[in-house]
Amino acid sequence: MSEQRPDQLSKWQQEAMSVPEAFDLFLGGSRGSGKTHLLCALFLRHCEQHGERARCLVVRKSFPGLMDLEAEMKAFFGAVYGTALKFDGQKHRFTMPNGATVALDQLEREADFQKYQGKSFSHIAVDEAGQYSSPALIDRLRSSLRAPAGVPTRFVMAANPGGAGHAWLVRRHALKASWQPYTDAASGFDFVTINATYLDNEFIDRERYAKNLIASCATDPELGRAWLLGDWSILRGAYFSSVIDEHRNMIEPWEKLPYEEPEDPWSEYPTSWEYYLASDYGSAAPSVTYLVARSPGAEALDGFFYPRGSLILVDEETTTHPDDLNQGMNLTVPEQADRIKRMCQRWGVPARGVADDAIFNKTGSQSGSIADEFRKAGVNFRRARKGSRIGGWEIMRRLLADAGKPDMPGLYISRKCHVWWQTVPALPRCTRNPEDVDSTAADHAADACRYGCIGNNAGFRVPINFAY
Questions:
Q1: Running DSSP on this structure, what letter comes out for residue 268?
Q2: How far is CA 395 from its chain centroid?
Q3: Percent of the chain with pLDDT over 70
């Protein structure tokens, strides 16, 4: 906590206070810039102007984070009102002398949203918005943003780079030009993005703060730089940051699949290209399926030589919702199978490969398992036998790192695989286990890719335009 008093505002905070309330705000700068102090100042002004008609709400995903925020607000509002400030510890609600209120609450899952239904707030803020892997709950919270005539409403989000929601925040807000109004295409509301760094906060020991922040990310310097500079474009993903490089891993879309008749189809070392599917199933969550090519150590039709064992994600079929990378389209198995078969027909290969082991579990219905439903619909999957998640990630990381080496198999991803490029480079590490990916993030494309990497003995050699 800094020594900044309520009557002190940094230059950027003063400028932020001048943004008309007609615009919602995205505060996306670095850590230590003073975003929480600005949030308190915005609420204080609103409460002073509109009295008992002003009802403010701040949500965070976790209770520990909420307690930290509560302590900062106690210090801020207490310095302004002294003993005239009322605080209800059970309801986590501040009541100003003029009757205005500021409430703090947790919003972690769908069930938590029920307590906001029927309630009205004139200002709502989501602190640490990057902890939400999906914008769905945050967008839904807007339904409680309403006020009496003459009282302006405003929605504010504050976030730092590198969280589970990094990808959707980048897509919707983080890379917009600072201080320039824009309309968020997903929600239809007008926003202003404001980015500031610790260097803009004269109320902290900036040199010491920077050292402490870098030290806290000693095992992940890319994340440390993103936090320090507030540059969302720096972070290519805390987990894969050291192994993904678009110049090495991204390839232009193929027009046709390479194929060579094998000299010896029973050879331990195949001389022809192999193709198979790699799929992560979902219904409410996204389903992602890749057509994977395995190189025998040959040149493809793009003129690039792929060392033996290299894997290429040629095409992508996904049910990812266009506005939420962590939400599916609720398609049935037959509907998903039809989409997968159409992708395979475009390339002239049979619809078979590997998938998440979980789809082979019996569902208790007459259909048997999800894998059985796919088989009846014309898509044949085998178990990826995924084993340890961390072990699979290490195989995938090694293949990504070795891409571009002339004598080592690598992992190459077509530019056509849009969801892969939107999500995998931005996947954060799990906070509880840095060796794993944060499973609350949009990791569905990464999972399908991982199954393709560990299940690459599932390949089949067929002539192009295979009839099935």
A1: S
A2: 22
A3: 91
